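Repro case for the chain-ordering regression, as requested:
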Amino acid sequence: MEWLERNVPKMVLAPSFVAIMIFVYGFIAWTAWISFTKSRLMPKYDLDGIGQYERLFAAPRWDVAMNNLFIFGGLFIVISMAIGLALAIFLDQKIRAEGVLRTIYLYPMALSLIVTGTAWKWILNPGLGIQETVRGWGFESFTFDWIIRPDMAIYVIVLAAVWQASGFVMALFLAGLRSVDGEIIRAAQVDGIPTHRIYSAIIIPTMAPIFLSAFIVLAHLAIKAFDLVIALTGGGPGYATDLPATYMYAMAFSRGDLGQAASSAMIMMMVIFAIVVPYLYSELRPRHDK
Amino acid sequence: MYLKSVLAASTAVMLAGPVMAEPTAEVLHWWTSGGEAKSVAVLQDQFKAEGGTWTDMPVAGGGGDAAMTALRARVLSGNAPTAVQLKGPAIQEWYEETGLADISAVADENNWADVLPAQIAEHMKCEGQWCAAPVNVHRVNWLWGNKQILDEHGIEMPTTWDEFNAAAEKLQEAGVTPLAHGGQAWQDATIFETVVLGLGGPEFFQKALVDLDPEALQSDTMKQVFDEMRTIRGYVDDNFSGRDWNLATAMVMNGEAAFQIMGDWAKGEFLAAGKEPGTDFVCAQTPGEGFLYNVDSFAFFELDGEDKQQGQALLAKLIMGPEFQKTFNLNKGSIPARTDVALDDFDSCAVESNKAMNAGAEDGSLLPSYAHGMALRGAPAGAITDVVTAHFNSDMSSDDAVQQLVDAVANAM
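-- result from build under test --
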C-alpha cells in the first residue's frame, strides 16, 4: 500500500516522460545528427563534419533570414510590450465598460495567424487597401507600399504581429497590475505621491516577473514565426521577409535538402536556448534573499 | 472501341503468367484541382476497366511539396506506394536513394523509345532501364497576349527581346500595363529562363542552366540576361508581389495587361473563361528559339507482391497508351508526350507546341525547364531561384547578381 502510494505518481507520469524523451529530445538529437551529414532527399547517417553549417552561413538567404529575425524579434517584443503595458495601465483606471474594451483588445489573439496575415495582406496591398482608399479620398500622392518594398516589407510583418499579440500582452500586464497589493498603493496615495510615480516606482517594479514571462512568450513566438510570414508575404518580395523557420521549411520540403534544413533548425534552437537558459537559470536557482 | 479491345487483349497476354493475380495500384499524386482531377479519373477508369484495383492517394498543397512529404514518410516507413507522380531529375534522385522498379519490359513491348522524343525518354530512364512513364508535355516558354490590346496599338507578337521591349514601352506610354506577372519566386524564375533561352540560345541555356558551367554562369551573356530582367521589372504593375499566376492570366484576359510569360497551363485559364485562341488571345513562343519542356510523369517503386507488380506494369502501359495521352492532355491543356497521337481535337496553340517539340527534338533545342524542376535537382535549382528572385525584387546590379549566381551554385553542390 505504502509502495503504491509512493510509486503511483511515478507510474502515471512515466508514459508522458518517455514520450517527451523520445519525441522531443530524441528528435532533437536525431536532427542534430542529420545536420552533420550530407542528407538531401532522404536522411543519411554517415557523418560528414560541419559542411552543412558552412553552406548555411555562406548562403545570402540565411543571412537575410537571421537579420530579419533580429529586426522582427526585437521590434515585435519591444513594441508589443510597450503597447500592451500602455493599454493595461489605461484600462486599470477603473473606467466604465472595461470588460467590453478588454475583450476588444484581446480579440485579435483569438484569430489564427493565417487569418491575420491574409487580412493584413489585403489591407496593405497598394492596389486594394489603405493606399488606394486614401488616394480615392483625393490624396493622390499618398503612398503606403511597404509590403512590396524589399527593404520595408519586414516591418509589415512586425505591424501585423504586434496587432495580434499586444492585446494578449495587455491581459498579462493587467493581471499583474491587479495583483499589486492595494494597501501599498493606497499608502502611497495617502503620502501624496503622484500617480505616474506610483506606477514607475512601485507597481511596475513589483511586476518584474510578468515582464519576464511576457518577454519569454513573445520571444519564442518571434523565433517560431512562420504562418504569419507565409500568409502575409510568402517570404517575399524575393526572399526579403524570410525568417529562419520559413528558410527551414523551404529547404526541407521544397528543395529536398534535409541537411540544410536540419542545420538551420539547430541554429534556431540555439537562439532559443540563448534566451531561455538564462531565464531558467534565474528561475531555478535557489533563492537566498528570502 | 478498337483500341480498347487491343488494350484488353494485350493485358490478357500480360496477365497470362503462372500466377493469376489481380493488378492493384496505390497512386500518389497531387492532381486535385478541377481539370486535373478529371484527368486522373480517366486513368482510374481505364485501370478499373482492365480489372485492376485502384487506391487513390491524392495529396494536395504546395505544388507537390505536401505529396513529396507524404512520399518520404511512406518510403521511410518501408511502405512505398505503387506509383508516384514524380518528374525530372527527382526520378533519378529517388532511384539513387531507394531504387525504382524496372519497367523496361512494358516499355520495350510498346516501343516507347520510338514514340518519345529522345530528350524526354532520357528523363524516364535510370541507369539505362526504364523507371518512369511520361504523361504529358507542358511548354514553358509561351508568351500570351491580349489580341484586342495588341491590335489596338498595332503590336505584333515580338520575336526578339528588343522587339518585346519596344512593344512594352509603346504600351506603357499608352497607359497599359505591358506585362502581367506574379511576384512569386517560381514565376520570376520562369521569366528568367525564357530570357536565358532567348538571349543566349539553346546551347547557352544547356551550358548555364543544365550543366551549370561556371564560365557560362559568369559570362557577359548572363549579365545581359540580368539587365533584361531589370528592364522587364519596369514593365510589371506595382501590385505584383505575391500574386498567383492565374490572377496574372486573368489580367491579360480582362485587358488589364497586354502580355504574360507562362507555361501552357495558362491556356487552360483562357479556355475555361470561354476565350478563343487567335481571336481573344494569342500564343507565341517567347522571343528566341527553342522549347522548354515540363513533363509530368509517374515513377514506380520497387515492391514485393505479384499483384502490385502487375499493377505497375498495367499502369505504365495505360499511361503511355495513345487513348489516355489524348484524353488526359485535352483536359489538362498540355500535349501528349507521344509524338504519334493525332492532334485533330487539340487547339491551335497545342498543335503549334507539338510542332515545336518535334522540331526541337531534331535540332537539339528541346530543353528541360529549370524553373519547373526538370533540369536540376532541388538544391542547385533553388539556389539559382534565390538569386533570380532577389535580383528581380531589389536594385541589385547585374554584376552582383552574376557573382551571387556563381557562388550560390557552388554552395549548393
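Ordering looks correct now. DSSP finds 13 helices and no strands in chain A.
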